[in-house]
Design goal:
This protein is globular. It is built from 14 helices and 12 strands. Strands 2-8-7-6-5-3-4 form a 7-stranded mixed sheet, sandwiched between helices. It has a 5-stranded mixed sheet with strand order 1-11-12-10-9. With about 475 residues, the protein is an alpha/beta fold. A hairpin with a 7-residue loop joins strand 9 and strand 10. Helices cover about 40% and strands about 15% of the residues. The structure holds pyridoxal-5'-phosphate. Pyridoxal-5'-phosphate (PLP) binds next to helix 6. Pyridoxal-5'-phosphate binds next to helix 6.
């Protein structure tokens, strides 16, 4: 006899279904725990074609009607070949292992499903987010009048910072004359923002970096002077506090002074380096950030939060008015100030997740010093790894690490630069395919290099050196194959 069809409403999150909710969540947590216990290595090295075929074969019109079967299928299609950022042999992109208090918060974020656009959809949530924004502004060193908003990530935070800059500049200049300055090592979200803001690719002028890969302040001064003498308008200068490849922190105080001199909005992209705000020993590396008009901080990088969690903070909260729009159906105008505090008035998004709760429970359970301690740990880790790699004859390190990345390549004595260049991407691919370790690749002065991005405070120096040992072993093998061929 066929099983009775489930009641059509039985899947709705509702007090009447609380037993079902608890049972289903337990199933999920147990399934994840079993998966974690079975894991070995950061990945399985699956190729796109192999990952795609079983997923696209699923007939979404034929449900399984059984959470256990659905979880088993999910494992086959996704979890079994997932990339695990907590694994000490994962050292590729800017992904962090996440802290457990934030995962606890996720249960509430998605089940209660508050939307942070208006007070009447979130109540206390509005003030949790506001309190965290104020706290982060305090850590930056902003005074009263500062404000901010949680966003989906550094890309959106940078976009909003530059939108505020553009709208301030538009009061006196035509958009075609606006220019944005960022270091040559700045993040590509600056260029994307210029496109989205209708300023075009030509609006972003890249400033060369100095020997430490920080924005060359002399070159910035000259570029700003040239901009003005060409009758163009320096709309914004973006300093990066932690570049994606080298972790370089641009000279914030000098950039602040130059921005002020030329009337440019000063934005600091601290998506990566923002975790230093919690460090009790390295906060000084961000000296000058308090002079920025706006700052991007990604909690889902160096604050060990699950994706998504980022914020844009502004020195003068009044600028957030550039994104305010009143709709009668949601956030009507409130001339006498007696209405509700609505976060949508400061945000590019309308419906918005309560991501702030993750950081809240993290701070309330662990405290900021623990987060700062993790940041210090990964910075120390990168330093020690770079020192040890410097002594390794088959490896060349591009520069001393400034945050938690190490840019390096396989280049034993006698291997030409061209050959090292060709081997780097092959080594990276071979490592991924082995499933045993993952590193990233990048280019430095047109040459291919490998990169360790270290955001795992539980990884040890020896474990990370183990990844590099694999790089050398794979490099030796590939170099030999190529010599024989
Ligand atoms: C310096 C910097 N800025 C911005 C971003 C973009 O952040 P997100 O990926 O959260 O959009 C990144 C991402 O790695 C970054 O490294």
């Amino acid at each position: 006899m066929a099983a009775p069809a489930p009641h059509p409403l039985s899947h709705v999150f509702h007090p009447r279904h609380v037993d079902d909710y608890v049972a289903t969540m337990r199933l999920g947590v147990d399934h994840l725990a079993d998966t974690l216990r079975r894991l070995h290595g950061p990945a399985t090295g699956t190729a796109p074609e192999r990952a795609a075929a079983p997923v696209t074969a699923v007939d979404l019109d034929r449900p399984l009607h059984d959470p256990e079967l659905a979880l088993a299928e999910m494992s086959r299609l996704y979890l079994d070949d997932a990339v695990w950022f907590h694994d000490p042999s994962y050292a590729a992109h800017l992904n962090c292992p996440v802290v457990i208090p934030a995962l606890l918060a996720e249960v509430f974020v998605s089940a209660v499903n508050s939307s942070l656009d208006t007070f009447d959809q979130s109540v206390g949530g509005t003030f949790v987010e506001r309190h965290l924004v104020d706290w982060t502004c305090g850590r930056i060193g902003y005074g009263s009048g500062s404000d901010g908003i949680f966003t989906s990530g550094g890309t959106q935070s940078n976009l909003q910072g530059l939108l505020l800059a553009r709208d301030r500049a538009l009061a006196t200049a035509d958009p075609s004359r606006l220019r944005i300055f960022a270091s040559a090592d700045g993040h590509f979200s600056v260029q994307k923002a210029a496109r989205v803001l209708g300023l075009g690719d030509a609006a972003v002028l890249t400033v060369p970096v100095d020997g430490d890969r920080r924005m060359d302040a002399g070159a910035l001064g000259k570029a700003l002077a040239d901009c003005v003498s060409d009758d163009l308008v320096p709309m914004a200068v973006v300093a990066t506090a932690g570049t994606t490849d080298f972790g370089a922190i641009d000279p914030l105080r000098t950039v602040a002074a130059l921005s002020e001199l030329y009337g440019a909005w000063f934005h600091v992209d601290a998506a990566y380096g923002g975790g230093l705000l919690a460090s009790t020993t390295r906060r000084h590396l961000l000296g000058g950030i308090e002079q920025a008009d706006s700052v991007t901080v990604d909690f889902h990088k160096t604050w060990f939060q699950p994706v998504s969690a980022s914020a844009l903070l502004v020195k003068d909260g009044a600028h957030l008015g550039h994104v305010t729009w009143h709709a009668d159906y949601l956030n009507p105008e409130d001339p006498d100030g007696t209405g509700h505090p609505n976060q949508v008035d400061k945000s590019l998004q309308t419906t918005r997740r309560f991501d702030a709760l993750k950081l809240w429970l993290t701070l309330r359970i662990m405290g900021p010093d623990r987060i700062g301690g993790y940041v210090d740990t990964v910075v120390d880790l990168a330093r020690e790894v770079a020192v040890r790699l410097d002594a390794e004859p088959a490896i060349e390190v591009a520069a001393a690490p400034q945050l938690s990345t190490v840019v390096f390549r396989y280049r034993p004595d006698g291997l030409s630069e061209d050959e090292a260049d060709r081997l780097a991407p092959l080594i990276r691919t071979a490592l991924y395919e082995s499933g045993a370790a993952m590193v990233a690749a990048t280019k430095v002065s047109g040459r291919c290099w490998l990169k360790l991005t270290l955001l795992n405070p539980m990884a040890t120096v020896e474990q990370v050196l183990g990844i590099c040992g694999r790089v050398v072993a794979v490099g030796d093998e590939l170099a030999l194959e190529r010599a024989v061929a």
